[in-house]
Design a protein that fits this description.
The structure holds two protein chains of two kinds.
Chain A lengths: L7 E4 L5 H12 L3 E6 L3 H13 L3 E6 L5 H15 L4 E4 L20 H29 L2 E6 L12 H21 L4 E8 L13 H10 L8 H12 L10 E4 L7
Parallel strand pairs in A: 1-2, 1-4, 2-3, 4-5, 5-6, 6-7
Chain B lengths: L1 E3 L13 E8 L2 E8 L3 H17 L6 H16 L4 H14 L3 H13 L3 H12 L9 E2 L5 E5 L3 E5 L9 H9 L3 E5 L7 H12 L7 E4 L6 H9 L3 E5 L2 H9 L6 E5 L3 E6 L8 H14 L9 E7 L6 H18 L7 H20 L4 E4 L6 E5 L13 E7 L2 H8 L6 E7 L2 H14 L3 E4 L23 E5 L1 H9 L6
Helix pairs in contact in B: 1-8, 2-7, 3-4, 10-11, 13-14
Chain lengths: 256, 483
């Protein structure tokens, strides 16, 4: 018996990086994991296969989470197969390259840059939540975990558009937590620091990594696997009296 | 995936036999086809290389050679270049080292062979690099020229990726024909480099060869060594002895055998702010190529009397190794290496029972081990692969007496100390046999122009030809324009 035996978990953007690590961690605890992806079918299927090997039940489902109809379809499909959804992990975000040297400066950003990130992080989470709230209400509970970033507390590198969208997601999550608490639905956030290696962070230079490491009490940068533990905690009954919180997973770089 | 190792100049259409070496890491597999030439073919290659380098390579000025090498390095430093991408993709599988470690290691290594670094390398060894081009006036009177051998044979080791570059580039700078034998552990890089060099300057096509045979192949070694002017050998002392036995008396042998390197940390670095940084750098030197280099530290001496004690320092290093295990995971070990490590650790753990102050730190996976010793009884080599001893000391003289019996093996000492201590200690260490003192964090990346094992890389390869002042003065008498 794993901690998530009999539970159904949907992880968005789970074909690679942090999402894939989260999917595998749920599978290790014998959960039924829906590995959502946008483009990379092969990678998503590999993640699903790895999940199955780890003792979970898993399948890969393509859906563009920034499309309301696609999200509806995704949730319907999951409900058809499993009849319930216990956990949603909103991990997907719009493509973004974390390159501290080549990032856009504040005065170079167009509103469209912000809009793209807001669509990727906030709009997608909004669609997922709208689709799943009626189901969780009916079930009498559920857990929603949204992946944000520790940059919302301290923009070590000001990735304006990305971090602004994630900060909006923190605000959105707190409001949702207030509204959904009376139904037994919990909404929390996990805020990782720089996670390496992922496709998005591959261009981060050694100097930046060394600077972060020197300021981080636990003296290293996060791996995708480091993020999974707190996500599982917030998805589990162990955090049953926590909602509206943000857990920072950055080795102590941010303390609050 | 299949890769082709080696580089053979054109010696006719007769087919060249090959062998396939297989490498595997985390489910990825590379088959490397290595050329196995017959003795007759090796003789042809040697003859060709000798002739071509005499005709073309020796006609280039040293500046022209540097410019060619600089262009090759520019390509190898470009992460979009196909050879660079191939190196980043294939070398981690072949050597087992972590991908990120290989990527970062290659960049820092290639940087030492760019034009300004090569110029420094030449000046360091020869003072006046023009000595390689022409007779140059000497302070003693007369003129001299540095003449490189016709053929240098290199027998390379494979403990660190791309290692052959040092001796191959040295051989090219002295305008010699070069024949290199790659190791079965890393047979690829030298061949890629040769092909890239020939792409940059096609006229060099017959001036070098990269071949393979199984180490200790008496027949082939005798044949090739017999035609070499200089043989440069890397490996264990036993295999170097074997090689030497196959050399004609007249052939010069430059052996680079196993070495012992270590670090020393002064109490002046062990305060609340700096101690962690020093531990971080020490751990980096341990992690880089899993201590497989001759310059990798086997142990660290840490001075007592600082705000952070040697024991606390050992714990800092342990945590750093744990962090690096995530950032740059250790390569998979062979069964022999695993057994060596297990027995090493067991012996140390038993010793803790009688020596209460001692500590053995490690994680469950066993991918690093730190042993703290309050005092040293004997200087001993580590079993490597991220296993290190941290030993407390009070005065430098204690270290010197402990390392004295290992004089012939000492190489790099990584030092964290104040300027006054650095120079004092370097004096002691030099007398004890160490040949390189560097900063922690730099132990595994020697600077351009370093004196490998205390020797001159280029000067050891060349032969000086003197025109004595007497000859010059004498010739004056016979000039047709004598009045």
């Amino acid at each position: 018996m794993g901690m998530f035996s009999g539970k159904v978990i949907v992880v968005t953007g789970a074909s690679r990086g942090i999402g894939a690590a989260i999917a595998r961690a749920f599978a290790r605890e014998h959960g039924t994991v829906i590995v959502n992806y946008l483009q990379n079918q092969q990678a998503a299927e590999q993640v699903a296969a790895a999940c199955a090997e780890l003792g979970g039940d898993a399948w890969a489902v393509q859906a563009d989470v920034t499309s309301e109809s696609a999200v509806k379809q995704l949730i319907e499909q999951v409900m058809m197969e499993t009849g319930k959804i216990d956990v949603i992990v909103n991990n997907a975000f719009a493509p973004y390259t974390f390159d501290p040297d080549e990032r856009k400066l504040a005065w170079e950003l167009a509103w469209e840059d912000y809009q793209a990130q807001i669509d990727g992080a906030l709009r997608s989470t909004y669609y997922m939540c709208q689709a799943v709230i009626p189901i969780m209400k009916k079930q009498g509970g559920g857990s929603i975990v949204n992946i944000v970033t520790d940059l919302v507390a301290r923009p070590v590198v000001p990735y304006h558009d990305y971090t602004t969208a994630k900060a909006a997601l923190v605000g959105y999550s707190r409001n949702l937590a207030a509204e959904l608490g009376p139904f037994g639905i919990r909404v929390n956030c996990v805020a990782p620091g720089l996670v390496y290696p992922t496709d998005a962070s591959r261009r981060t230079k050694e100097e930046v990594k060394e600077m972060l490491i020197a300021q981080t009490p636990l003296r290293r940068i996060a791996t995708p696997e480091d993020v999974a533990g707190p996500v599982l905690f917030l998805a589990s009954d162990w955090s049953r009296f926590m909602t509206g919180q943000t857990l920072f997973v950055d080795g102590g770089l941010i303390m609050r | 995936m299949r890769e082709y190792a080696g580089y053979i100049p054109h010696i006719g259409d007769e087919p060249i036999e090959t062998r396939v070496l297989t490498f595997e890491k985390n489910g990825e597999r590379v088959e490397v086809e290595v050329p196995l030439l017959t003795v007759e073919q090796l003789n042809k290659v040697t003859e060709k290389v000798k002739q071509a380098s005499a005709q073309f390579l020796k006609s280039l000025s040293v500046t022209e050679i540097i410019n060619l090498l600089d262009r090759v390095m520019e390509q190898l430093l470009d992460r979009r270049h196909p050879y660079r991408q191939k190196a980043e993709q294939v070398l981690p599988i072949v050597t087992g080292y972590d991908e990120e470690m290989v990527r970062l290691g290659l960049t820092s290594y290639f940087k030492t062979f760019r034009k300004p670094q090569l110029q420094r390398f030449l000046v360091e060894d020869l003072e006046n690099p023009l000595l390689l081009d022409d007779f140059q006036p000497r302070p003693k009177g007369g003129l001299s020229k540095a003449v490189g051998p016709d053929v240098i044979v290199h027998v390379w080791a494979g403990n660190v990726p791309a290692l052959p570059l040092w001796s191959l580039i040295s051989g090219l700078l002295v305008k010699s024909g070069n024949i290199g034998k790659v190791s079965s552990a890393e047979p690829l890089f030298a061949g890629w480099f040769a092909r890239l060099l020939v792409e940059v300057e096609p006229k060099l096509a017959d001036c070098l060869a990269v071949v393979w045979w199984k180490g200790g192949d008496v027949e082939r070694e005798r044949a090739v060594f017999g035609q070499a002017d200089v043989v440069v050998g890397y490996g264990s002392n036993a295999s170097l002895e074997e090689m030497q036995r196959r050399l004609p008396v007249t052939t010069r042998f430059l052996p680079f055998g196993h070495k012992l390197s270590f670090g020393i940390v002064s109490r002046s670095c062990l305060d609340a702010r700096k101690a962690w940084h020093v531990a971080h750098q020490a751990a980096f030197d341990i992690v880089r190529y899993d201590q497989q280099g001759c310059y990798s530290p086997h142990l660290f001496y840490v001075q007592t009397g600082g705000i952070v004690s040697p024991k606390e320092f050992a714990r800092y290093v342990a945590h750093e190794l744990n962090c690096f295990a995530k950032r740059f995971p250790r390569r998979p070990l062979s069964l022999e290496e695993m057994a060596a490590q297990a027995s090493w650790r067991q012996r140390e753990e038993l010793d803790v029972l009688v020596n209460k102050e001692k500590e053995v730190l490690g994680n469950e996976a066993g991918d690093w081990t730190v042993v703290y010793e309050p005092e040293r009884r004997e200087f001993a080599a580590s079993c490597l692969n991220r296993v290190v001893k941290i030993v407390a000391f009070d005065d430098i003289s204690q270290i010197i007496s402990e390392i004295a019996p290992y004089r012939a093996f000492l190489q790099t000492v990584g030092v964290a100390a104040s300027p006054k201590e650095l120079f004092e200690w370097a004096e002691w260490l030099g007398k004890a046999g160490a040949t390189r003192v560097t900063a922690l964090g730099h132990m595994t990346s020697p600077e351009a122009g370093w004196h490998h094992d205390g020797r001159f890389n280029l000067r050891d390869l060349v032969q000086m030809v003197d025109i004595e002042s007497a000859a010059e003065a004498y010739a004056e008498q016979f000039a047709p324009y004598v009045d």
